[in-house]
Design brief:
Helix content: 25-40%
Bound molecules: S-adenosylmethionine
Structural class: alpha/beta
Order of helices and strands: HEHEHEHEEHEHHEEEHHHH
Distance between the termini: 59 Å
Length: about 280
């Protein structure tokens, strides 16, 4: 199946369907982009792939041609019905009608070292990304997301894009902006441009007794961007200001520092002194 806008419209009309906004359905209609995604993920016959939101299967079909096994999860039973008919010859494809946010991946997939390759539903990008980052079976992530979110994820310290998402991803692995995808590569066209982001998971070598607490700390210190680090911490924790001041002095960090001025190592050092020393 060569994907293009006419073919996509034809399939939707054959099944008497329209793209559903509530499920973030913007279908990829550019075969070159689909191949480029699979090339950048180096999808090959050794790979077990998860695709979140296969839709009518434009990317799914190419993944099946290239990979060993493809597990596809879509929340919409209409999409699952289309896939079961249109891709019935793909013997290495397993389709589940599930909300990916609700599932425990190990209940569905026994393989490890999984690559995720997906054009994500944008309305749940952040929770999906956090789930994938925390899932040990997932080793590499190649996702289509909003351009603006991609910029935030790869944002560097001291820029407006830098924030909790950049720090969380930096802690979990190496993120790379692969390429931009313009809105006219989709049907219906969304009102934002997109990008392919890759994340190769490799956790920082930090010693932590309570990792979830550290991850929460990262989110908390960026909760009010205009406030100083000290104000953000005081707002979220029952910690005295003079204790914070002495920790910052000890670490040679100015007292009025804002979180976006801190490298991940600084955040880790502050966290350890506050909660684990
Ligand atoms: N992969 C297809 C493509 O590129 O043409 C469709 C991508 S479309 C942006 C997002 C897909 O995610 C839709 O098929 C939608 O039904 C599905 N979806 C939305 N929310 C979901 C969820 N919570 N779990 C699984 N799939 C979901």
């Amino acid at each position: 199946m060569i994907s293009n806008i006419n073919k996509t419209k034809e399939i939707l009309s054959f099944y008497n369907l329209n793209a559903k906004k509530k499920f973030g359905q913007n279908f990829l209609v550019d075969s070159n982009i689909i191949n480029k995604i699979c090339d950048c993920a180096d999808v090959n016959k050794e790979d077990t792939i998860i695709e979140i939101g296969p839709g009518i299967g434009a990317l799914t079909e190419v993944l099946c041609n290239r990979a060993k096994k493809v597990y596809a999860f879509d929340i919409d039973p209409d999409m699952v019905n289309i896939l079961n008919h249109e891709l019935k010859d793909c013997s290495n494809l397993v389709v589940f009608n599930k909300d990916f946010l609700d599932i425990n991946i190990s209940d569905y997939i026994k393989e490890d070292n999984i690559k995720v390759v997906s054009n994500l539903p944008y309305y749940i990008t952040t929770p999906l990304l956090l789930k994938l980052l925390n899932e040990v079976k997932v080793k590499e992530i190649y996702i289509m997301i909003q351009l603006e979110v991609a910029s935030r994820i790869i944002g560097k310290c001291n820029t407006k894009d830098y924030g909790s998402l950049s720090c969380l991803v930096e802690y979990m692995g190496k993120a790379n902006f692969e390429f931009k995808v313009t809105r006219n590569c989709f049907y219906p066209a969304p009102n934002v441009d997109s990008a392919i982001l890759s994340i190769i998971k490799e956790k920082r070598d930090y010693k932590l007794n309570n990792e979830p607490n550290f991850l929460k700390f990262i989110q908390n210190i960026f909760s009010m961007r205009r406030k100083t680090l000290i104000n953000n911490i005081c707002n979220n924790y029952d910690i005295k200001r003079d204790i914070l001041e002495s920790i910052l002095n000890e670490l040679n960090i100015k007292l009025n520092v804002r979180s976006e001025e801190l490298l991940l190592d600084d955040i880790y050092n502050i966290y350890i002194k506050l909660f684990e020393e």
